[in-house]
Design brief:
The protein is mainly beta and about 450 residues long. The chain has five helices and 27 strands. The chain has two domains: about 35 residues; about 400 residues, Neuraminidase, CATH 2.120.10. About 10% of the residues lie in helices and about 35% in strands. Strands 1, 20, 21, 22, 23 and 24 form a six-stranded mixed beta sheet that branches. Strands 11, 12, 13, 14 and 15 form a five-stranded antiparallel beta sheet that branches. Helix 1 runs antiparallel to helix 2. The radius of gyration is 22 Å and the shape is globular.
């Protein structure tokens, strides 16, 4: 009995100490993430992915033989500095160790950035990236950043990323209003992409951002677009791939408030619809549905927890939606965000997930989201955790980066389970995995 009371006191004291620590760091949410049951994962415990100093967008495809192939943007300088390029590495033990980096594009060539991998059904891996093809520098108000301009390039590997094609190809991205209104009237294009392409109705879809204007905070006006390739699974000649820029028309996906609509991210619903999320500077992300394979989209709107539900809070940061295609949660959705209304670049720690399920509505399937669950955190509140990927390999793994260290994290199954549990407080309603059977 005495030991029981002592244990309770110890737990209470520890909890108070952790809350105090979080307050001292300027964000009590870190303490909440630690005390959450089950607790969020401390990113310092993850397995490190090799890089050259700066590292961004560590995205993984699981090859048919079980090997993980990771691609990333890296360089010896800070983001946007000369020498930024794209690399790959392989792991045979779920990210615990990695091979040496392999250059997809070299550091001494034109800048290559924001690489995204796509694994075809026949085993080829394509990578898509922003390439400073004309080797232009100092074109943005006298600055030196050339990592969001040029041509949309791609290469491929037929040996699991051990080597990459010597040749590169360029996607014929359709010119639109955002291009003709940019400072160079479309003669120079500004764009980048995040996440990974998806397969939808046997076609590949890739989300990306077009930049119309730059300002004091770098990107001042942007909008979301997509590229579709409908023969990538059947055509082995990269020069014969067919490309279409979506949506139709001259304007992309925008924010209902503010000039920023960036980093659009896609998933495919069971009724053949497409769902996407993207970031803004309004303290909320946007979401949109397409019922015609990306040709048109629903009116721009801030993301809610469900039809006519509460607004989701999120800063100017990547927010990703993924459909789980393996394991006990197959067919359900997860959504990565930061659960705060910071309008700027900060507020990326802790990181949260929502669990989602499909529900029927008169206009088609929609996603109903559950309550926020903290998934990753760092003890330093100023750490900016972002650009994740999600790999299912007998459990969920998440990669992330703070721009200087990229890591892999195994997510406890109990934490994943909690995404679909009923809430114990006044949070948004939990997603009910059986709801679709009753509607």
């Amino acid at each position: 009995m005495h030991r029981f009371h002592l244990g309770v006191v110890t737990v209470i004291v520890a909890a108070v100490f952790l809350v105090a620590q979080g307050a001292e760091r300027g964000d009590s949410r870190i303490a909440e993430a630690i005390n959450q049951k089950p607790a969020a994962v401390d990113i310092s415990t993850g397995y490190v992915i090799p890089d050259e100093g700066y590292c961004d967008q560590p995205y993984v495809v699981k090859l048919k033989d079980g090997v993980w192939l990771c691609t990333m943007t890296t360089g010896k300088g800070h983001e946007g500095k000369r020498g930024q390029h794209i690399v790959s590495a392989r792991s045979t033990n779920k990210g615990k160790s990695w091979t040496k980096l392999v250059d997809i594009e070299p550091a001494d060539g034109p800048e290559a950035s924001w690489v995204m991998p796509y694994l075809t059904g026949y085993g080829r891996v394509y990578v898509f990236y922003t390439y400073n093809a004309a080797n232009i520098r100092k074109v943005i108000g006298g600055g030196a950043r050339v990592d969001t301009l040029g041509r949309y390039a791609f290469k491929y590997s037929d040996d699991g990323g051990k080597t990459w094609s010597k040749n590169r190809w360029f996607i014929p991205v359709r010119q639109t209003n955002a291009d003709t209104r940019n400072p160079y009237k479309g003669k120079i294009r500004f764009f980048w992409g995040v996440g990974k392409p998806i397969t939808h109705k046997n076609a590949m879809y890739l989300g990306f951002t077009k930049v119309e204007k730059f300002g004091a905070n770098f990107i001042a006006i942007s909008e979301g677009w997509f590229l579709r390739c409908d023969n990538i699974e059947t055509q082995r000649d990269p020069g014969k791939l067919k490309w279409r820029t979506l949506p139709d028309g001259d304007d992309g996906l925008k924010s209902p408030k503010g000039p920023i609509a960036s980093e659009v991210n896609l998933t495919s619903l069971s009724d053949g619809s497409l769902f996407c999320t993207y970031r803004t500077v309004a303290g909320h992300p946007c979401h949109a549905y397409s019922r015609d394979d990306g040709k048109t989209w629903t009116k721009s709107a801030f993301m809610t927890y469900g039809p006519k539900g509460k607004l989701v809070n999120h800063p100017r940061a990547a927010n990703f939606v993924r459909k789980l295609t393996e394991g006990p949660y197959k067919g359900r959705y997860i959504y990565w965000f930061h659960n705060n209304q910071t309008p700027g670049w900060n507020g990326r720690n802790p990181c949260y997930l929502l669990g989602g399920i499909e529900v029927n509505r008169p206009d088609g399937k929609h996603i109903q989201w559950g309550r926020p669950v903290a998934v990753l955190y760092d003890k330093n509140s100023k750490t900016r955790i972002s650009y994740p990927d999600f790999i299912w390999d007998d459990g969920l793994y998440i990669t992330e980066t703070q721009k200087s260290i990229a890591r892999v994290h195994k997510i406890p199954d109990k934490l994943l389970q909690s995404l679909w549990k009923k809430p114990q407080s006044k949070h948004a309603p939990a997603a009910d995995p059986d709801a679709h059977q009753r509607r």
